[in-house]
Amino acid sequence: MHPLSNLFLAIVLLISSLKTNAQPPNSPSDLRIDLLLNADKVWKNGMPVALSLQEAKQSGTTYQMALIANQNPYFSWILEDNSKGSSQTAYRILVASSLENLKANKGDFWDSGKVIKGQQTGIIYGGRKLNPNTVFYWKVKAWNNKQIASDYSKPTSFITDSVLKPYQTAHQPLVKSLEKPVFSKQLNNLNTLYDFGNDAFAQIKIHIKSATDGDTLKIHVGEAVDAAGHVDRKPRGTIRYRLLKLALQKGQHSYDLKFLADERNTGSKAILMPDYIGEVLPFRYVEIEKNDNAIIEVQRYVVTYPFNDQASSFKSSDTLLNRIWELSKHTIKATSFTGIYVDGDRERIPYEADALINQLSHYASDAEFNMAKRSLDFLIYHATWPTEWSLQNLLVAWNDYLYSGDIRTVKLLYPQLKPKLLLALARADGLISTRTGKQDSTFTKSIHFSTFNGEKVLKDIVDWPQKGGFGLPPSYPGETDGFVFTDYNAVVNAFHYQALICMRDLAQALGEKKDAAFYKQQANKVKQAFQHSFIDPNTGTIKDGEDTMHSSLHSNMLALAFDLVPNEHKAKVITHIRSRGMACSVYGTQFLLDALYNANEAEYGLQLLTSTEKRSWYNMLRSGSTMTTEAWDTDYKNNQDWNHAWGAAPANIIVRKIMGVEPLSPAFGTIQIKPQPGTLHSAELQLSTLHGKINIAFTKTTAQFQLKTSIPSNATGVVYLPKQTEKDRIIKDGRSLKAIPEGKFWVIRDVKSGTHNWAVRY
User: Fold this and answer.
1) Mean pLDDT value across the chain
2) Less Cβ crowding at N or C end of the chain, within 10 Å?
3) Is the backbone of residue 229 left (phi > 0), alpha (psi -120 to 50) or beta?
């Protein structure tokens, strides 16, 4: 045989062998419709039932399920392929009117055909007009960058609402889970205490055997215990306690106890519990008074929005930091009990500032995006009174798009977002003020503000509570670090600047080019005016206002967090911030810690996070709370509660700043990995996103920094490694690598998906 023929045969055999050995990618998983996982699940009064959507629909019984109201919903999925550089190059979606059609690969409502696109999130439905109140079935297959097709995903389903609209945020119903106490003990007076291990919004279920009719069982329910180990009957602040009396029937029975509504959290502005759930109370402990009946079992129904406990995890060499992570993560889950971000149990009212922190920490805890969307939609039309909090709508809107990649909520609300910038309160140089007579009825109507807690116009807040406390002596300094309020306020204008930046980027994403150019110009003008008006020329720090020389922590930390401090003044501003300690509320720490980590002050940031002083998350744990509290201590706010998610900033700070994982493009298409360990020796994180799970782990010694990263398929990374000197040796997967120096980091861009091992040898 001719040598060329032999060569040709060898090539043919090689290609055939490669095709034979090539493994198809895993089939797509985690299918979402309008960002919802498990849209095919069914619940009865909050408890899961083993019914299909079609069975529930045909039963004639009332069940709860997610209803898709969009005429053209979005589809998303995950490709679980951690091989290096893996990506999707094409997909095919089938949507069918029956499971039989879908199994036969007949997409009678939509067969997308093979679409040559890498997109795996936010794919808009393009088939026949969907029918209302109908169950549909769908699945998807994908091709990888080797042009090999996966199998189809497992089929899933969704049900449409009775009325279909151009857009409406989808959501799951509230759900219940039945929990047992972690332990129980008999108290000295023969009462029995049941401890569920943590605080949660819940209801009580008791299984008991009574010898006679008419006995009354006294049940004490609360969030705290007293020094003697009893449920605290007179807790401080608004820490919860309730006495229930249960009339028993003869024989063995189960009782679902009911809580009466509290007028403080069921007012006109509160989010009410739906009838299928009923009223709840936050509690950890149940104490049953001595009785002659046989108590068989005490349980509780915990009420939350659906939450995936396995979506995120964090562990480090600092055991206190680990406890603070668990405290914050549990808070986010537990306070989801209304399905919209609220301020805790005392009022159950949505506030913009609470929503921002809740949103970021929710993203850090679970890959759930629709609670933030629903909360933003609600807050746009139910404005609260603080000036800064109106501006935070824009920050929430930007985070919504950046983390979810779904701009539909922003697009719908875009005309209503514009007035929230408060441009109507601006003077010629761009700075805004609420105190110069510009808040007329036209303005308040434009931002959907009406009287709120007696306030008829927006007022600057800075932090809460302000001087004089809340029910505390008038001399109490409050949480504003002595902030001096003047007509033109540095904190308000820092938020105004950041809101303009967010609006600029949102307008660009929406294709509103003229608006984007305007907001960019306005932001530049405000930045120039801010630096001219608020920088103290003698100290280089940020003054509270034009007519004062006082420089609070808040003015400086907000300016630093939002990049309003010129480089030549940053060292002085940081020194001033460090001199003030934790002179802000639990809410203010979101921006204090953002500022510190943005300025690479990781050691001081970690020092504040793990402080054991009274103004610390450790103090929340020390006090006995298992959710973050409204204030550092009841001494600082005497009506505070123990279930306030605006204190849960550590959840997102740990993910975004210590581990350094943030989206650089919508839905984490491009991932920043920029760990700032400070004094931590080691840490590891798992974070779920719409592209899949991100895993990172680092160890740090005096000789080197080691980092392991796992980037999901179809995503890329930008990796930052701590830099000591220009002579550092950078290693990737066992080989030396040239990296770009950037400040205190080495930067490696365009890192492909898959697992990589990095080292910096000093």
Assistant:
1) 95
2) N
3) left
Residue type, 514: K
Q: Where are the domains of the chain?
A: 25-165, 175-304, 312-658, 670-761
N residues, the chain? 762
Q: At what angle do helices 589-598 and 567-580 cross, to 10 degrees?
A: 140
Domain 312-658 class in CATH:
mainly alpha
DSSP for 217-232, written as a single string: EEEEEES-B-TTSSB-
For range 627-651, the mean pLDDT: 96
Q: Which CATH superfamily is domain 175-304 in?
A: Galactose-binding domain-like (2.60.120.260)
The string of pLDDT tens digits covering residues 377-411 is 999 999 999 999 999 999 999 999 999 999 999 99
Distance CA(482)–CA(476), nearest Å, equals 11
pLDDT of 22: 64
> What Rg do the C-alpha atoms of the chain give, in angstroms?
28
Is residue 175 within 8 Å of 48, Cβ to Cβ?
Answer: yes
* Cα 26 to Cα 195: distance, rounded to the nearest angstrom: 44
Matching CATH number, 670-761, of 2.60.420.10, 2.80.10.50, 2.130.10.10, 1.10.287.110:
2.60.420.10
* Nearest Cα residue to 344 out of 428, 429, 282: 282
State the Cα–Cα distance between residues 173 and 73, nearest whole angstrom. Answer: 18
Tokens of 40: 């095919």
Its pTM stands at: 0.96
